[in-house]
Design brief:
By secondary structure, the chain is of the alpha+beta class. Helices cover 24% and strands 32% of the residues. The strands form 2 sheets. Strands 1, 2, 3, 4, 5, 6, 7 and 8 form an 8-stranded mixed β-sheet that branches. Strands 9-10 form a two-stranded antiparallel ribbon. A hairpin with a 2-residue loop joins strand 6 and strand 7.
Length: 206
């Protein structure tokens, strides 16, 4: 039996135990008037969370890797050729109980943001200079998620029963206070982390 278990574990690819949706996004870098900008989308009313700012991306399709999904979604949403996207690498990702979001940094040197004609999922696109995020910190606000259980939850089967102390979850949600656009939540988290990586690398050079 131990040998069977050993062989099983040798072939097993670890994954999350919980049923998590898998999503991938691309953080697109473009050149605007000689400076590097980050490109964002405004979600249209044809998709969930209309009016929100996001990166190109979406759920993985069967057999796709995270990177393939990010590229496919960017190609579809921005209506551009995949060959115009150079993936510079994968950065840190977001893990929640019901989803994983992986983020890839893409360089789009031939793309003019003003000439993009995105598909129906995208209301508009806009860019913000990368330099802005290297000198501006987001403001984090705190939210609390309270644990609630169904009426038929078997509390008698756990230590402490009705008096069991459930742990509530506190989240820190970042906001960038832009004048013309919303930038908060996961997109702001990924933006902030990207700026931190650049600043950390600059500090190493010093």
């Amino acid at each position: 039996m131990i040998e069977k278990i050993r062989n099983m574990m040798a072939d097993h690819q670890p994954d999350a135990i919980t049923k998590q949706g898998k999503y991938a996004v691309l953080l697109p870098l473009v050149r605007v008037s000689g400076a590097i900008h980050i490109l964002y989308e405004v979600r249209s009313h044809r998709v969930s969370q209309p009016g929100e700012t996001s990166f190109p991306g979406g759920a993985l399709e069967t057999g796709e890797t995270f990177e393939e999904a990010a590229l496919r979604e960017t190609e579809e949403e921005l209506v551009l050729d995949r060959g115009k996207i150079t993936v510079l690498g994968e950065m840190d990702y977001i893990v929640k109980q019901n989803h994983i979001i992986k983020c890839f940094v893409g360089w789009l040197p031939e793309v003019d943001a003003d000439r993009l004609e995105p598909n129906e999922e995208v209301e508009a696109v806009f860019t913000i200079p990368l330099a802005y995020f290297l000198t501006t910190e987001p403001k984090y606000y705190e939210t609390r998620l309270k644990m609630e259980r169904d009426a038929d939850f078997p509390v008698e089967l756990i230590s402490g029963g009705q008096k069991y102390k459930w742990r509530n979850v506190t989240q820190q949600i970042p906001f960038y206070h832009l004048s013309d656009h919303y930038l908060w939540g996961y997109t702001a988290h990924l933006t902030h982390r990207f700026s931190e990586l650049i600043k950390n690398e600059a500090n190493k050079a010093d």
